[in-house]
Amino acid sequence: MAIIGSLVKGLINLTGVLTSEPNHVDAQAEVLKTLLTKATDTSFGTHYNFKEIIASEDVQKAYAESVPYFDYHKISEEWWSKILEGEEDVTWPGSSSYFALSSGTTGKKSKRIPVTDDMISAIRQAGIKQVAALSNFELPAEFFEKEIMMLGSSTDLQEKDGHLEGEISGISASNIPFWFEGYYKPGVDIAKIDDWDKRVQRIAEKAKDWDIGALSGIPSWMELMIQKVIEYHKVETIHDIWPNLQVYTSGGVAFAPYEKSFNSLLKHPITVIDTYLASEGFIAFQERPDTDAMKLITDNGIYFEFVPFEPAYINQDGSIKQDAPCITIADVEKNQDYVLLISTVSGAWRYVIGDTIEFTDVERAEIHITGRTKFFLNVVGSQLSVNKMNTALMALEEAYDIKIPEFTLSATRISDEFHHHWYLGTDTDVSEKELAKALDDLLKDANKNYRVARSKALKGVKVTTIPTSVFNEWSGAQKKKGGQVKMERVMSEEKFATWEAFVAEELQK
């Protein structure tokens, strides 16, 4: 009998009973006041007169009117660069113990995003909230005695100028509570291995020694790890190695495109729980089993604002125009795409995180990530979001009984006419022309703007199928494998030319 598991499950259930659901509107107003009050005497708070904002009759309105929008480049150049130079009390009291390295998607030049002790604490609190939400899922007591495989970036953080640098998953794993270390796999020694292939090889070698009940990590790299373990032990599914595997906590990107290929590695279905942990903070998690939407964490050190995702408000580079309208959580509506802005306990202020979201349930503050501002394809008015692309590809998978876990595309010119050129990571005998026609028809049916564009300036769709492994090698060549690295879904014409040259070279090997 799983006595310890029963106790843990009981405590989680009790936590769920004792924890009341916050009023999201009130919680957000309180979070903003707390952030402004704590940062009042920082250089940023002084510059934008936080004292006057706090004293105003409508703090949220005054804040929006006083502080401009910041993307990474603007806030880094004007403010965060001073923290890197050793200044204190710049955008948040004191200094940052860590800097999260992030390129957003694959890219050689990393962004450096401050991670304060207050943010580390907020991430821990968000993790506790997520664990407490497990009481909503029908998991047996035995599950709570199993080990958890957290497949993130290396925990071997690099010291630089008095702070430590690494990807947010590595920073989080290096700060796990002492009582959790016994459950955490692959363990400290393996997690420190920086080389992805060597780390996964060690995981494969040790896999049979562990009783894994849950997995956590980005889907593309999790799939590769599972495939390596299966191959190393010459078995059919991951359940032949980890028979008690019951939960997968996905994060970083939408799980839906990977669902079919991921499930093919399992002997039986498992519970998939989505989370939204970005380099800038722990933003949301799936709280209940009867939806795949995630609940915004509205009472834990992050203040959210929302800009309607309309072409008129977005610059060519994906940044927001300073005169774009902005609303609070009190005024959001269902099924409207918004650009997400955050202000945080790490000293991000009205920061454009780069993601677009939609609310599926306003009262519960539940959302879907619909894409990236830079991945929004609006050449000749087609207005395609990543969410709409994912939906079309899932329908294509169903129609042809194929798996398409990876893709990228660009608007390209063929004989001076615009086409959408898709690269699909899939193994199929279906002709590329047939897939292109089917994909085109699916997008026409689902998207009015796309249908109009196809009748005018957008002349056609081209599909090229390639092995999924090419996408992984591209990520490795652009930055490195594993961790937080994600595939670009939409590329500029210039980047796409580099991609095509890379693909041609890989296919010749």
From TrEMBL:
Residues 297-362 form the GH3 middle domain. It holds the Pfam family GH3_C. Residues 392-494 form the GH3 C-terminal domain. Transmembrane segments: none annotated. InterPro entries: GH3, GH3_C, GH3_M. This is GH3 auxin-responsive promoter family protein.
